[in-house]
Amino acid sequence: xxxxxxxxxxxxxxxxMIGVMVPITFAVTQxxxxxxxxxxxxxxxxxxxxxxxxxxTEITFQTTKPDGSPGNYPGGVDTxxxxxxxxxxxxxxxxxxxxxxxxxxxxxxxxxxxxESFTINEPVTLPDDGATQTQEESHILAEGGPExxxxxxxxxATYGSEMAPQVQQLRELRDNQLLQTESGTAFMTTxxxxxxxxxxxxxxxxxxxxxxxxAVKLAITPMVSSLSLMENANSESEVLEIxxxxxxxxxxxxxxxxxxxxxxxxxxxx
Length: 270
Fold this sequence. Notes:
Low-confidence stretches: 1-27, 130-149
Distance between the termini: 99 Å
Strand content: 15-25%
Helix content: 40-55%
Order of helices and strands: HEEEEEEEEEHHHHHHH
Strand order of the largest sheet: 4-3-6-7
Number of domains: 2
């Protein structure tokens, strides 16, 4: 009787463990594409894709052109948490192929892939002012292209790749914290109006002048590091409080410290 009772208990525990392990295994191997945005950024057409993915594994990205040939900018990124946000090039503007493209996202460790198609239409000339516009560009603006959350032009040029950890950090901060609150969204709208008025020129200068690129890296790295504090902001009030603290910190670093140094030098001289 005791043996039967023990066997019964072991069977119940085994069933319970299987019931817990099966959904965990399924969740770990899940890979999805939750959003895909196509937008114009300086001299390139780009995509920004987000989705769920196994944690702590490599995710690869590959576009396929309308003629079936592979795109020119494959990429990969390691996931720290069960999600990914990637911004990458599709094609340079002067070599862009119009038609229906495919983006394939894979987790090789789990032998699983997902894909999604998107269409880039050929520009048409508008009869009124001769300007060119594509249906895809209209779609991009409606979905939130550069006006809401385009590429990090200066950071990408500074750190050498849209896959650089610093650039990924900035995108995740924008998407996971700022754009999830009203105050953060309002800030990003104002910031983008100013940022995209000068950032393409700065990024071009960095690509043309390596010494200028190093100077920009030296200048913005403390600011990028300080923005990691915003990762703890998960509500409207926290975004406001931590955001104001980060702004004050950067004002101190970039204005306060130089001012103190200048005053100290003047006192020694005079």
